[in-house]
Structure formats: C-alpha cells, structure tokens
Amino acid sequence: MTSPRPSDSRLATLRLAIYRAMPALLAGFAFLAAWELYVDLSGIKPSILPAPSRILIQGWLNREALISNTWPTLGATLGGFALSLAFAFVSSILMDFMPFMRRALLPIFIASQTLPLVAIAPLVVLWFGFGLLPKILLVALVTFFPLLVALLQGYEATDRDIVELLNSMKASRWRIFRLARLPSSLPYFFAGLRISITYAVVGAIFAEYAGAARGLGIYILNAKNNFRPDLVLAAVIVSALLTLCLFALTLLIQRFVMPWQPSQERRR
After folding, report:
1. Residue among 208, 191, 205 nearest 243 (CA)
2. Is the pTM of the predicted complex or chain greater than 0.85?
3. What stretch of H or E contains 116?
4. pLDDT tens-digit profile of 238-250?
C-alpha cells in the first residue's frame, strides 16, 4: 500500500479549504449582488450610497493615493503590535513568577480597557505630538490585553504531571517555565494573537483620526468631508484586506511554530 504523495496531500488540503470557504464566499457574493441591484433599481444618489461597482472603479482610479496612505497605517499597526507583544509577554512572565504582581497589575490593566478610545486618543496626540509614537501607543493600548490574558490562561493550563515530574528532577522555576508552562501557552497565545491583530488596524486608523498627516484614517476623514462615500468605502476595503493579510500571517506563523496543530484540527 503506497502512501499519499505530498502534492496529493496539499491538493486535498486546498480543496478542503475551498469547500469550507464556499458558504462565506456565496453569502458575500449574494450580498454584493443585492446591494448593486438595489442601487440600480432605487435610483439612489452615489453621494449617499454608491454601488459596489462604483466603489471598485473609484478605488482603482485612486489606487496611488490609497497605497501611499496605507503604508503609514501599516507602519503604525506593526510598530504598535510589536510593542504590545513585547509588553504583554514581559508582563505575563512577571505575573506568573510573582503572584503579588498579578494582584497589583491585572486590575490596572483591566481598568485601562474601560477607557474610551475616543477620549484617550486626542490626549495621547496632545502629549506626544502628531508623529508615529502616539499611534504606536494607541495600537498597543488596544491590542495588548487579549495577548496578556491569553498568555496567563496558557500558563495556567500547564499539565500538573509535567510540572511535578520536572520538580522531582530538581528543575529550576525558570526551567519549568521554559520547558512546560511556555509551550503549553502556545495555543492560547496564538488565539489571542489572532484576536489582537484584528484590533490593530482599527486602532491605527482611529489614532489617525485624532491627528495625523497621512494614513488611511486621514484619507477616510478627507473623503467624508468631501462627500465621497465611494472613496470612504474603498479605504475601508483596503483596511479590511490589510487586516485579513495580517490575520493570515499569524496563521502561517502558528503553522511554522506548531506544525502538529493542523493535523490535530483535521482529525476533529
């Protein structure tokens, strides 16, 4: 009995992915078709509700402006997310090693998530200026908490038998953390990573609303002030595609770090 070739396995995986995505693709196509049909039959003005075809055409005609404003948003997103990731990882280690730090810091971090971004963003811009720093800080503020909670839950999910085995071998606390607690947190970490990355682009765009020279947020604001909803929605599509690309990147990183995970999911 011959084993399946790698090419056949990849083809089967691709077919399965297409099959699973088909309902969402059909639903999206039906929604866009209904939208296009409604705009054509109702005679509504494009300045109120543009058709999807108009949004795509105007987005293509203004692609250079959209692309040039996408790079600053992407830079703020990646910079803020990197800061968020580093801060969440360091904080989670401190809380795991020192329980009193968890009791002291976790309520503060929870309270930080109750602050309305619409009120904090102008203050951050006022304190740190109109450069890249306030946008990075605001993205970090929006995205670090899901990462922190995911890491803490992952540490708590460590198999106690493994910890007891390492303790019986006189392993240090740091060695137990590195060999047991950190690996057990990986599935939780990547779940939090996927949640946070979807917030990152939105946080960057909202930060640009508060004050920026360039970016998708400024582009959307200028298009709204010029009564161009087609360009507003074109920029929204670009931001959605950017979010999907970053989300897919997290999945690729997870597959690289945890190569056993996809096979486990296929068995479910």
Report:
1. 205
2. no
3. none
4. 999 999 999 999 9
> pLDDT tens digit string along 188-219?
999 999 989 988 998 888 888 877 778 898 99
Average pLDDT over residues 107-131: 82
Tell me the one-letter amino acid at 87. F
Task: Give the Cα separation of 166 and 78 in Å (integer).
Answer: 37
Chain Cα centroid distance, residue 100: 31
b/e map 175-213, b = 16+ CB within 10 Å:
ebbeebbbebbbbbbbbbbbbbbebbbbbbbbbbbbbbe
Cα 86 from Cα 90, distance rounded (Å): 6
Q: Would you give the distance in Å from CA 34 to the centre of its chain?
A: 29
In the numeric block, which tokens belong to residue 72? 């600053």
180 pLDDT exceeds 80? yes
Contact 152, 105 (CB under 8 A): no
C-alpha–C-alpha distance, residues 215 and 201, integer Å: 11
242 sits in the region (left: phi over 0; alpha: psi -120 to 50; else beta) called alpha
| Token pair recorded at residue 19 | 């099959």
DSSP helix, strand, coil percent of the chain (3-state; round to 5): 85, 0, 15
Contact 244, 238 (CB under 8 A): no
